[in-house]
Write a structure and sequence with these properties.
two-stranded antiparallel sheet, 2 strands, 68% helix, globular
C-alpha cells in the first residue's frame, strides 16, 4: 500500500464480505463479539496476573499508589501479547507482527519519531496559554529521583503505552475494520478507550469526550501509517510531555520535575486535576489533528486508487 507495511485487515486472512445486508450484519455482529471478547479476556486476565505482581511494588522507587498503578502495565502487556498472538494464529493464521508490530528498522524509527509528534501535540495544548500569561510555573515536590527511578518510570510508561495500544488499536480495532468499516471500528474502540479512563481522578464529561477523541486520533494514526509502533510512540510522547510540564496524566500525578503549572484559567479549559487531556483546549487541538489525519487518509486513498 504505497510502500507502507500491511496490518491485519489488509491480509488475505480476512474472509470476503458476503452479499446482502443480513449476512453482512451477522458477520459484523460476530466480529464485534469476538473483538470485545478479546478485550474482556485481556482485561480480566491482566487483573488476575497483576495479583502476582503486587509484591514487586516494594521495589518500585516511587509513591506506593503510583507505583502500583504503573506496575499493572507489565501483566497487561503480557496478556495482551499472549491473547493477541493466540487469536491471530488460530483465527487468522497470522503473526503478531501483522498487527503493525514489525521489528524492521524503519518501523521502529517511525515509532521513535512518533514520540516527538505526541510531545508536540501536547505542547500545542499547553504552550500557547503559558506564552499568553494564562499560567505560570510553580515549585512542586519531586518524589521520583535518581537514575534508577527515572529508568523504571520510563520503562513502565513505555509498557503502559504498548499494552493500551495492543488492547485498543491492536486486535480489537483491526479485526473490526473490514466488517464494520473504519468509522465503526474507530467509534467502538475509542468508546472503550474512553470508558477505560472514566473512573480516573478528575474524570468528567469533558475528559471522557477528549479521551474518545484521542482514541480516534491514534486509531487514524494506525490506519494512516499501518504501524502500531507509531501509535505507541504518539501515546508515549504525549504522556512524557505532560509529565515534563509538571501536569497530571489522565488524573495520575507523576512527580518527576520540581515544578507544576498554576493556571489562571477555569479548569473547564485546562482539565483541572485530570490534566490537560480534560480541558476544552485539548478538545480543540485533538479535533483539529483528527480532521487533518482524516484528510490525509482519504487523500492517500485517492492517490492509491489512481496508481492502480
Amino acid at each position: 500500500m504505497l510502500g507502507l507495511g500491511k496490518v491485519l485487515y489488509d491480509q488475505p486472512h480476512q474472509p470476503a464480505l458476503p452479499d446482502g445486508w443480513i449476512l453482512r450484519g451477522l458477520l459484523a455482529v460476530a466480529a464485534l463479539m469476538r473483538s470485545f471478547g478479546a478485550l474482556l479476556a485481556m482485561g480480566t486476565s491482566s487483573i488476575l496476573l497483576g495479583l502476582a505482581f503486587e509484591p514487586l511494588g516494594q521495589w518500585i522507587p516511587m509513591p506506593r499508589r503510583l507505583g502500583a498503578n504503573l506496575l499493572m502495565a507489565i501483566p497487561s502487556l503480557l496478556m495482551c501479547l499472549l491473547i493477541s498472538a493466540l487469536l491471530l494464529h488460530y483465527v487468522h493464521q497470522a503473526k503478531l507482527s501483522e498487527l503493525g508490530l514489525r521489528l524492521r528498522r524503519k518501523d521502529l524509527k517511525e515509532g521513535l519519531l512518533a514520540i516527538l509528534w505526541g510531545a508536540f501535540s501536547l505542547a500545542l495544548v499547553v504552550a500557547p496559554p503559558l506564552l499568553m500569561g494564562l499560567g505560570k510555573f510553580a515549585a512542586a515536590e519531586t518524589k521520583i529521583k535518581g537514575p534508577y527511578g527515572l529508568v523504571v518510570l520510563l520503562l513502565l510508561l513505555a509498557f503502559a503505552a504498548l499494552s493500551e495500544e495492543l488492547l485498543m488499536r491492536g486486535y480489537a480495532f483491526q479485526s473490526l475494520v473490514q466488517p464494520m468499516h473504519l468509522l465503526g471500528a474507530l467509534v467502538l474502540t475509542s468508546g472503550a478507550f474512553a470508558a477505560l479512563h472514566a473512573n480516573n481522578r478528575g474524570a468528567n464529561e469533558f475528559t471522557i469526550a477528549n479521551t474518545f477523541l484521542a482514541g480516534c486520533v491514534i486509531g487514524m494514526v494506525v490506519a494512516l501509517r499501518r504501524n502500531l509502533w507509531a501509535a505507541v510512540g504518539v501515546h508515549l510522547g504525549w504522556n512524557l510531555s505532560t509529565i515534563l510540564f509538571g501536569l497530571n496524566v489522565s488524573g495520575l500525578n507523576i512527580p518527576v520535575v520540581p515544578f507544576t503549572v498554576e493556571w489562571r484559567l477555569d479548569p473547564v479549559w485546562t482539565g483541572g486535576a485530570y490534566g490537560p487531556e480534560g480541558g476544552l483546549l485539548c478538545t480543540v487541538t485533538l479535533s483539529a489533528i483528527l480532521l487533518l489525519l482524516v484528510m490525509l487518509y482519504y487523500q492517500r486513498q485517492e492517490d492509491q486508487a489512481k496508481s492502480e
